[in-house]
Inverse folding.
RNA sequence: GGAUUGGUAGCUUAAUAGGUAAAGCACUUGAUUGUCGAUCAAGUUGAUGAGAGUUCAAGUCUCUUCCAGUCCGCCA
């Protein structure tokens, strides 16, 4: 039926007879001659119908948008001056000899060349949306990325192993998607949040190097970069330390960017401690393309007669930080008010600022509601430390450290984007030396910053007992342009250490035995030192294709309320199905009348 | 759970201070032998997401609700 893809017919086939199949992208009827742009996944091809074959021409007159055609015809150079430079096949056209209408089509619910159709419509008719050039290209790029990754890992000795989708609910982490068991009344499987434990077991089994491109499930609220089901590139290896794993993953990324985008990522990736990232960027995934930094000024503000600053400056749980914005004094009062509103989202109670009108004129050169509260020596030191020049602006955050970091960290990105300060295209880095735990104020207990199987640094082992909050882990995150591409760690391979960590997380011996007994057992049967990493494949593809949501790189994504507009899932099930599962729905859904 | 933006013809949008719902594209028909977002002419298309209220009068004001987007919380 087909000899060539439409989009791949070019001048090298001139004078040959080809058979192509595709969808009618556009029809231009000139009465005596009809042009049809025929489209398939590889692109467009102009097909010409002449009236000398009356029967075929009559059929061509009835063709409408999105009809599916098979056309046999001769490739010929377009007439002089009639080439279309926008088309890969623009130098040639196909003169139709035979036409088969394989299928008719209703008028599509939206036009394929309309690039601002609402996402709601696109998702409802996703099968049509996927015909558009942008979607097709992104899915093709995604497939190329997966293949390049597989090629690299395969050549590096990694085995692709599948792990169960029906598995055990875990107490830590995100909310599980549950699947009721028919054969065990009242019991449930959980869909995996990640194959974490299975890949560790594969290391115990001596598989040595494992990878998998695998679906993961988390029942939490959605974002532009979060879907209830998403794809991880999951990797684990034995007998390598963190430096070796990081080097290998970096090499993989470098090859990937070269293959897909022809981009040379500068290497080696810089490494930054968690503490430094929080201090300088207010974030554990800093966007290094933005040349703004948070500056610690708590020590300066301790003794000033301005409680908004001196209070937090003296409190060890708080910080006062400055964000120096070159040329920022051009910001209007209205813009600064908008930024004040912006940081309020993160809990900041205000946003102090100083406009540096004339850096050489001391206090007189500064414009700000707070200058009157600050003594000369503090102002001098502030200008010195920020290296602020005339025309600049300095924002301040003074609050709980967490709030200051989140507020100024987000402001840093927003201001950087608004003022067009972004430098360079790709700025990867590693963030290392994460704390093992974070104190959860609400639950009044420790939480694992990565996950409960992350190993503590050898030299911090004693801190597990004495001061767990000071204990750092052997975890590492790969960050690209402010997005966490992946995170991993060296795992705990000693049973006693694993038990200790679970206890610190407030998991009782009984619960540990119940939920993780199989892992604890496995650790006792000759578990090698091992570690790994998991990358968010959707986010990686999103960055590499320049998409602004992972929905744009998934064929059939869900909406923000985790429903599928195409299939109308989730939906109710029959009484028989529920009965078989021994499940009773407690409340009837609200009346829909 | 919260903040915020939007929902008007098949699609994308408009509608002054509450006073006859409009345009472009799509679609239909006709014309048209070199277009490529073809062109020209004529034509069809609406319970303004749903429900209630205020009013002589509601797309517009009020309340409730549903859907979609962005963000906060949440996401080890």
């Amino acid at each position: 039926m087909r000899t060539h893809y439409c989009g791949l017919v070019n001048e090298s086939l001139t004078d040959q007879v080809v058979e192509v199949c595709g969808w009618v992208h556009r029809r231009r009827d000139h009465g005596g001659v009809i042009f049809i742009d025929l489209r398939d996944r590889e692109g467009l091809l102009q097909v010409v119908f002449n009236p000398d074959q009356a029967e075929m021409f009559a059929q061509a007159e009835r063709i409408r948008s999105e009809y599916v055609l098979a056309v046999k015809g001769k490739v010929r150079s377009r007439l002089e001056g009639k080439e279309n430079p926008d088309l890969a096949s623009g130098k040639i056209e196909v003169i139709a000899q035979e036409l088969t209408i394989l299928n008719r089509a209703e008028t599509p619910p939206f036009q394929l060349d309309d690039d601002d159709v609402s996402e709601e419509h696109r998702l409802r008719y996703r099968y049509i949306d996927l015909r558009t050039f942008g979607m097709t290209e992104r899915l093709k790029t995604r497939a190329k990325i997966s293949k390049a990754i597989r090629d690299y890992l395969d050549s590096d000795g990694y085995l692709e192993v599948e792990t169960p989708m029906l598995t055990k609910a875990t107490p830590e982490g995100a909310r599980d998607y549950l699947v009721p068991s028919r054969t065990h009344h009242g019991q449930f499987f959980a869909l995996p949040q990640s194959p974490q434990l299975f890949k560790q077991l594969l290391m115990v089994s001596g598989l040595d190097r494992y990878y998998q491109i695998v679906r993961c499930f988390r029942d939490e609220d959605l974002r532009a970069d979060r879907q209830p089901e998403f794809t991880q590139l999951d990797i684990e290896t034995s007998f390598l330390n963190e430096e070796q794993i990081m080097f290998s993953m970096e090499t993989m990324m470098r090859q990937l960017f070269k293959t897909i985008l022809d981009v040379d990522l500068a290497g080696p990736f810089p490494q930054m401690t968690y503490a430094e990232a929080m201090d300088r960027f207010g974030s554990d995934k800093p966007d290094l393309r933005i040349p703004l930094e948070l500056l610690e000024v708590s020590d300066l503000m301790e003794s000033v007669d301005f409680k908004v600053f001196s209070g937090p400056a003296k409190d060890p749980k708080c910080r006062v930080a400055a964000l120096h914005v070159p040329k920022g004094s051009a910001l209007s009062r209205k813009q600064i008010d908008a930024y004040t509103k912006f940081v309020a989202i993160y809990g900041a109670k205000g946003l102090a600022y100083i406009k540096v009108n004339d850096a050489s004129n001391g206090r007189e050169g500064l414009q700000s509601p707070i200058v009157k509260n600050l003594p000369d020596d503090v102002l001098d030191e502030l200008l010195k430390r920020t290296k602020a020049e005339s025309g600049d602006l300095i924002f301040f955050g003074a609050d709980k450290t967490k709030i200051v970091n989140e507020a100024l960290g987000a402001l840093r990105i927003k201001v950087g984007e608004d003022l067009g300060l972004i430098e360079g295209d790709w700025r990867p880095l590693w963030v290392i030396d994460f704390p093992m735990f974070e104190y959860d104020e609400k639950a009044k207990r420790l939480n694992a910053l990565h996950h409960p199987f992350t190993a503590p640094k050898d030299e911090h082992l004693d801190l597990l007992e004495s001061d767990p909050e000071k204990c750092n882990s052997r975890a590492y995150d790969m960050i690209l342009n402010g997005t966490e591409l992946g995170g991993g760690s060296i795992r705990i391979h000693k049973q006693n250490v694993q038990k200790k960590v679970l206890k610190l997380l407030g998991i009782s011996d009984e619960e540990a035995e119940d939920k993780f007994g199989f892992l604890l057992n496995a650790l006792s049967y000759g578990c090698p030192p091992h570690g790994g990493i998991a990358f968010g494949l959707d986010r990686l593809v999103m960055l590499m294709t320049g998409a602004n949501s992972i929905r744009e790189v998934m064929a059939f994504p869900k909406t923000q309320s985790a429903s599928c507009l195409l299939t109308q899932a989730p939906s109710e099930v029959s009484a028989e199905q529920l009965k078989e599962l021994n499940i009773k729905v407690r409340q009837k859904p609200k009346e829909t009348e």
